Each structure stands twice: as C-alpha cells, then as structure tokens.
Amino acid sequence: MKSRLFAAASIAALMMALPACASVGDGSNAAGPAAAVSEMGQASETADAVVVPPLGFQERTLANGLRVFTARDTSTSNVTVQVWYKVGSKDDPQDRSGFAHLFEHLMFKATENFPDETFDRLTEDVGGNNNAFTSDDVTAYHETVPANHLERLIFAEADRLGSLVVNEAVFESERDVVKEEYRQGVLASPYGRLFSLFVPATVYQDHPYRRSTIGSIEDLDAATIEDVRRFHATYYRPDNAYLIVSGNFDQGQLDGWIDRYFGPLTNPDRALPANDVREPEPTGPREATFHAPNVPLPAVVLAWPTVRYDHPDRAALTVLDGILSTGESSRLYRSLVYDQQLTAQTSSSLDASQQAGALTAYAIMAEGRTPEEGLAALRAEAARLRDAPVTEAELAEAKNELVASALRQRETVEDRANALGWSLINTGNAAAADREIADLQGVTAADIQRVARRYLTDQRSIAIRYLNADYANPATVQAVNVTAPVTVADLAPVGRIFELLPEDQREPLPQPGAAVEPATPAIQSFTLANGLEVFVARKPGLPLVSARLSLPAGSAHDPSGKAGVANMTAALLTQGADGRSAPEIAAQIEQLGADIGASSGADFTTIYANAPADVFPQAMEILADLARRPDFAGEELERQRDQALDGLRIQLSSPGPVGSAAVARVVYGDAPYGAPGGGTLSSLPALTREDVVAFHTGRYSPVGAKLVFSGDITADQARALAEQTFGDWNASAAAPAIAARAGAAPPPRVVVIDQPGAGQAAVFVARRSIARDNADYFPLTLGNTLLGGSFTSRLNQEIRIKRGLSYGTRSGLGVRLDTGAFTASAQTRNDAAVEVAGLILAELTRLATTLPTGSEMTTRQAILTGAFGSSLETVDGLGSLVAGLALYDLPMSDLAAYAGRVRAITPEQVQAAFAEHLPASEASLVIVGDAATFIEALRASYPNVEVIPLTGLNLDSATLQ
User: Fold this and answer.
1) Dihedrals φ, ψ of 710, to 5°?
2) Rounded distance, CA 396 to CA 846, Å?
3) Residue 587 · residue 397 · CB < 8 Å
4) Which of these, 647, 586, 676, 658, lies nearest to 622 by C-alpha position?
5) Whether pLDDT at 29 is above 90
6) How far is the C-alpha of 187 from the C-alpha of 180, rounded, in Å?
C-alpha cells in the first residue's frame, strides 16, 4: 500500500448505506433547552427502525466499457476521484507474488505527459491527498482535492491508465521500497508473519488468496521489468475498472471531461486470464504450528472457511462476528480477556472476499497462559454459538453497532465513494451497497445459530499456534513456489513502451477552476457555575454528535516513581462506575451504537463520546458517570494492570515502540515528561487502588476542564446536556502542584538499543522543541510539514523516493503545554541505519541554514490548509480542532483565522525558527535494531555511542540502564 504514514485516507471495511436517524432541531424550540434535550432522545433506539436512503450515485458506461459512477454534493468544497481496478493479489502470476501491490507503487510515477511524483503535486500540493491500496481482488487509487482541481485529476487518472512510464530506474527503486514495507510490516512486527503470511497460507488450500498480498522477497527479486509491463498491459484497461467521482462539481462539465480524457482509451484484443478457483469443502480439521523471532507472547488462531461476499449467509455471519468480538461486551472479550484472563488480546474477523471467505478468531495469550488454553477457549465460544441461540439483547446490540458504524463511515464524500467501490468489486452491482443495512436488520437469532452450525464446526476448523523461535525451533520460512492459476505466460504482450515526452510535446495539465472556499462554523461557548467551560461547534446534516471532556490530568501529573497512574486511571473509567460493572457499561454503550472511552496524554486526559443524535443524551449520561463516579474496584485494577503489562511486552518487542519510549528519556531525562505514560514493567505492578483514587480525586474536577460538543446539536441542547450531566459537579480537593514538566535539558546522546535478529532498525533524531503557545508555532509547523510531515516532504524524497531505504519517514514537533519533543524517524534495513540517520540530520540542518523556496512554501501552506479543511468535514475532526484551541487557552477566533495565518508565514520565519529551536547540533540519536550490522559504522562517527541490550533496557531510569 502506498501508505501515507502522516494523513492516510482510511478505507472503510463495512459497506453500508447512510441511516436516516432523527436530527436535532434548529434551536428555535420555544420550550427551551430542557425540551431540546428530550427532543434529541425521541427517535427509536433500535437499528430496525432506521430507514436507509440510497447512496445516490448516477451510473453510465463509456463505449470502451469503463463504468462511471458520480454523486454530486455541494455541501463540501472538495471532490474525490477513485479508480477501482478489478485486479488484486489473487491475480499475481505464479512465482510473482506481490505483483499487483508492486504495480500499485509504480502507478504513482511518470506518464508520457507528466514526470514522477506528479500525483503528489496535483493532490498534496493543493491541499488534498492521494493514496492507494491492494487487496485480494482489487487495486484502488483515490484522491481528494479542492473541487476546482477536478479536471486535472480526471486527466491524470486517464493518462496513467493509458500511457504509464515503467523504466528500469523506477522499477528498481519501488521494488526496494516494497521490500522495506515488507520488512516493516512483516518482519519487524512481532505478529506480522502470523497475520500476513501464515494465516492465509494455512486457511486457504487451493485458492490464490493463500499468498500474501505483499508477496515475498524471493518473488520480488525474481520479477523483471518486462513482467511488470505485461502485467499492466493485461489488467489496466477501461473495461476492467470503475471510475467513481463524488463531491462538489457540475454534472455536465464532469461528463464532458470524462468523455474527453477516458473516452479515447482502448482495450487489448484479448480476454483477461481465467481466474476463478473454487476452494474445496473441508474434509476434516487441520492444525499447524509456526515459529518466529521476537514473539513476546504466544498466539493462536482458530479459523473456519465460510462464504464469499455475495453469498446470502454473509449478513448472518457479519452479525455473528459482531456478537463474537465487537466491543468489551462481546463474547470473546468477556470470556477470554475479562472473566478468564487468558489472553492479552482477542478478536475475530469475517473475511468475505470475491471468490471465497473465512471467519478467523485469534488470541494473544496472557503471560503464563498456554496456546492450548487459548484454542480450547476459542472452540468453546464457537460451540456456544452452535448450541444455543444468541440472546435478543446481543442481537440488537450487534445490529445497533453495525448501523452506527455505517453512519460514521458516511461522513465524507470519500467515505461514500469507498462504500460503493467495495460493493462493485465484490458484487458488480452498485445497488448491493444500498441493501447492506436491510440485510443485516433482517438477521435473526435463528439465522446466527444456523450459520454457526453450518460453518463453525470442529470438523471444518483450522487451528494455528504461533510461538517464539529458539535453537530447537528455528523461525518458519515463508512458503514460496506456490502454484497459481495465472502464469507469466498468460499475460498480454508488452505492447507500446512509453517514455516521458519532451516538455514542449506533452499535453498540458488543465488549469484549476475557481476555488470553492471551506467555511468554518461559529463556535459558541459558555461556562457553568462550577467553572466548567463548554464549547459548541454545530455541524448540521449527518445525525451524529460528539463530545469530549478534557481534564488537566496527564502523565506529567503522575507522582514520582508511579509512571502510568494517569493512563491507568483513564483505562479504569469504563471498568465500573456508579455501581455498574464493566460488562454492564460495555453493553449499554454498544446498545446505543456509541463510541465512548477515555485516553490519557502527557498533559490531559480526555473522555469522549460519539453517538447517533437520537441517543446522544443517553451517551452523555454514561460519559458523566465515567468521569464523576468511577468505582475503581480492586479486581478491575488487577485485570487492567495485567492487560497493560502484556501490552507492554508486545510493544517492547518492536523497534519502533522501543525507540519512542527511549526518546522520551533521552530528551527529558528524569523530568515528568520523560517517564513512559503507559508505565513500565516495574512501575505498573506497584500501582495501588489508593494511587488511582488519589489521582482521580485530585485531578478530575470542573476546574480547568473543557467540554466540547460538535455535530448535529444546537447551543441550547448542549447547554441543557451540560447542566444536566455536570451542573452539580464540584471539585473535591485542590490539585497538588507538579514539578516542571520538561525540566532542564540534558546533553545530547547517541544511544543504540541492541535487538539481535530485529527485522528492521528504527532510527530517531530527537531534541526539545516548543510549547504550543510559542510565537514560532506556525513557522515551525509549516517547516515540519516540509521536513517530514507529508509524503512529498524532503525526508521522504531523500530516503524513500530517491534511495528506497524506507517505506516512509515522518517528523513531528510534539508540542505540549511545556517544551515539546521534536522527533524525525524512519525504519530501514539494519545495515542502512547509519546512512538514514545521516540523511535525517542533513535535512534538519538544511532547514535551519537555507530558505525554503517559494514553491515549497506555497505547497506546504496548501497542505496545512487542506488538512484543516478535511478535519472540518467530520464531527470528531471539528471537535478535535476546537479542543486543540480550548486546551491551550487559545481564542476560538483562531479557527477562522487559521488559513490566513498559514498563508502569512514567510521563508525567513521558517529558517529562523528552525535555527533557533531545532539546531541539528543539539539533537540526540536513538537507533533500535540488530547492532551487529551497523555499530562499527556508527562508532566511526560517534565514538561515545552508548550500546544498551534490549534485555537490559530500563525505562524507569533517565540513563536507560
């Protein structure tokens, strides 16, 4: 996947149409705020009552077979363009696994009319985004941009379909990038091999779904440029694609552009290769055991072959999957994690693809528990589904969750286009997306028991054990030479080979049209008598409402020697409140189809709720109980502590999380900001109920708290809800003072954390940055976007695009109330760690010593304003923007002024800010990886490098030892 590690567009997995829930009134209610609140709760709370309107796409087919779907929406200033090609990893030729995914990368390069990286210029540089993904059956490309750039994208999509340039240099570079993606996602992740390689290879016996989408290093190395060109000639054709456009456009004008640019494209004079393998019915249970390095806790998988996407039983299996593993009241979580405390994590997933499907349940075992216990527990839950009908409460809960999830996945034009695309790929029928909710609502308890008895039997089961490799059990090697229905010989001939034309011969890009400016809503605010500040950002239309209560209770407030108290306090809020148990709270949340929880950062804890508007008052009642009346039962503390410790063991087996934790200590030393917010393997066992109660009593208070409402809610309704839920809340004690959060700056360090056998090295350059209220916040933010804050950033160009050394790079200012922590990072193969570190430091130096160019300034300003505009499109994004101002006591007028402030930044301001606040000479360097492969090269430049074995890493100490 051409993943944007910075602002990747999410592809929705659940394809459903938008429910028509009751919406809030316009605030003219004569009965006043209290009546307004009751009005919000009048609609039915059951998913069965929801009426689902169609997605509303128009369809036409061009003479060349391209199917075109368009939906106009003038409420947005953006437009999304998506092309879904009916080719995925199942179509990879034999001995060329990973081909479809590799080609996805190549599609972002040159055509005969524009050079490499033009898609990034056409999207990110104007404030939009682009991305792509490959799965079993599809490779899809999608862009969202300001609406006035629509014609340019229609031209560009047609041009890369018709005249893509694939040359040796591009092929070699992108193949190297894909190898780094493989190392990062498969080799460096402790469970990457399990889910990417071993599960599909075991679940599917004959179908090409058994091969990994990313392929193997061996098959990638075996590929030739001729193979790649033939693959493009075979599958990238108008009659094998869907074009989807959604957003603010003129229909007649759009039709003309599509006819002009896509109409002349032709198809090869040969049919697509046959590829319709039918997976055989299981003849008995199967088992397999795999070993891999750096597996911190054993894992098990229990899977059953089920049905393809368009099978009538998919709806019942979808609801069954929801009952099994969605939320903390689900059967798997309740039994394996909560009651038995067998597992650190557990879940399930229904993978219903175009030609076959499977339901997969997994469990990562808790410390000291065995794989056999995990498999037995998973089998027991399958038996429960077979032996007795689910309860009506479970059924309603699962349906409500699915409907509410669908509602959230309809907030943007891109979301709605995604829903259509998935339906088209899997069924070929646009109307299928509109039937999703009705099919789910029609599922009965008898249906669920029927499909459980049909598919989830012991005789059909596939059991997998995944264990840490050792001398006696070496790491399992990925299977290669896997047969496939398509061979290289089946591919079309290469045909015409395109090259980038001389500039004077290229067809020019269309010019942008008149801009459509995004509008920022007016923010209303008021303060309750107890001091609680309330902010309301109304966003009418979609019937969703979000609230977030933020408190000055972050990890910087943890008492000395008790790292993790703030995080543990937040985690326990949903585990019992006002006399209700954790399962009861989870069931209430899930019955509403709500998303309610809490999280803790360095400076603040936030308790949040997102729910359909008709049940939002009930969601707010739950939120208030969590904030004000948590029980903090001793047994719940024990349970959460054990889960947190298992989670830490998993995190500390991957180079990236290890490096992030070490960086905090390197930058802040013993200061509060330096301690790991999630606690450590030694601090968590020492936490007591008294610690948590004291933290809540001293820190959870209306004094200094901010409550933000966003979405389909009026100020009157918000005021009434705030008074009803928090009006009688009073501070119980004065909050104790804390030490300086950032403390004195320690000297720079060069630290290597040695993890023998690590699949990759994680490289971090870090130093102190600024507080959020610093006057240089905007110049540094823009400069960071240029350095490593987007796909087109300098770091990504140097490390990924030019050298293929990493799947992606990133940088961030890490701003906080006190001095923040700047980091720039990348993961790379171990032997390239020193080179990558040098490239990061060189680019940091360049920003502090030279002026950004005018074009760099213009594009970075567009990226920031575009991301800002995208945030305004969702209720949670809007609420986050408002909270970001409120928490730092910044004026709400900054919301409307944001774009203007960004456009006013000068190159001189950027350079000066980096020179003052982020000189590379004062930066520290942290590398986590297999030190034997790079330590001598690093020591040549840094003789005083500190080498710390991962087994000896001590995150409780500023020295890390």
Assistant:
1) -145, 150
2) 58
3) yes
4) 586
5) no
6) 10
CB 671 within 8 A of CB 499: no
Distance (Å, whole) CA 287 – CA 462: 6
Instruction: Report how far residue 304's alpha carbon sits from residue 867's, in angstroms, rounded to the nearest whole number.
Output: 42
Neighbours of 730 (CB within 10 A): 11
Annotated catalytic residue 922: no
SS3 label, residue 824: strand
Which three-class secondary structure state does DSSP give residue 269? coil
* Alpha-carbon separation of residue 11 from 142, 177, 352, 537, 800 (angstroms): 10, 22, 16, 27, 23
For β-strands 286-292 and 78-85, DSSP reports them as: unpaired
Angle at which helices 854-871 and 907-917 cross, to 10°? 80
As given in the structure block, the two tokens for residue 740 are: 């300086």
Alpha carbon distance 942, 935 (integer Å): 10
Burial category of 859 from C-beta neighbours within 10 Å (exposed 0-12, middle 13-18, buried 19 and up): buried
Global confidence as pTM:
0.87
Contact 6, 791 (CB under 8 A): yes
Residue 409 has pLDDT above 70, yes or no: yes
Q: Read off the pLDDT of residues 538-553 as tens digits, 9 standing for 90 and up.
A: 998 788 999 999 999 9
The backbone region for 669, taken as left when phi is positive above 0, alpha when psi lies in -120 to 50, beta otherwise, is: left
CB atoms near residue 489 (< 10 Å)? 9
Name the one residue in this structure whose structure tokens are 């041009």.
159
> Among 45, 59, 104, 218, which one carries the catalytic annotation?
104
List C-alpha distances in Å: 271 to 239, 240, 276, 731, 924. 10, 10, 14, 73, 58
Angle at CA of residue 491, ends 485 and 492, nearest 5° = 150
The secondary structure element, H or E, covering residue 159 is: helix 150-162
Identify the three-state secondary structure at position 533: strand
Measured distance between the N- and C-terminal CA atoms of the chain, rounded to whole angstroms: 38
User: What CA–CA distance (Å, rounded) separates 613 from 16?
Assistant: 18
pLDDT of residue 53: 60
Q: What is d(CA 880, CA 877) in angstroms, rounded to the nearest whole number?
A: 5
Helix, strand, coil percent values for the chain (each to nearest 5): 45, 15, 40
